[in-house]
Amino acid sequence: MSIERLHKLLNADKNCVKINRDLLKALNIEEALLYSILVSEYQKKLKLEDYKFFEDKKFIYCPVEDIEQFINLSAFKQRNILNSLQKKNLLCVKLGHARARYIWINDDASVLEKLLYGYTVNEYQEDLMKIFIKQLNNFRQQKNIKIESSYIADYGVPWEKILSNDLNLHSSHIGWITKNEYINKPIIDTDKVKTGA
Q: Domains plus CATH for the chain?
């Protein structure tokens, strides 16, 4: 049997669960596994409009037996894991009639960002802006320059947006790099500025 065949068997769509590596670092393996499954099930059921409203939130029906059959987690383990995930504000569990279990997944990405990376995109943007302004001021003082082209770094961000704090970078534009890595990376594109009075 070739390694390719093994890989195909392990990655068959119907039997495969994808788990983010950063999630495995932030949660234990059972929490990461159950959370990943629940997010996937939640997304499927929302598309099918198979949910109930509790307090203006969409909850999906999620019986203990389904999870037990799917990943062999006992009702006791499920309850403990779900309690832990609730404390992290990743989801909420409600019990309906006859102890039917319903789950709501918190779709506020900042909660998961904080768990995975230690900060949210908004916090990152604010810190990035402070670093940028500091570097820009240092650069302007050293070189006695004027901004000529209204562009900053590699992003083509208009200078007016920097001044008005209307900059809205997203993680996909800058990637998830640590603040310390960014501090040491020059963010002023010197080809786009001109020395002068």
A: 3-107 (1.10.10), 119-195 (no CATH)
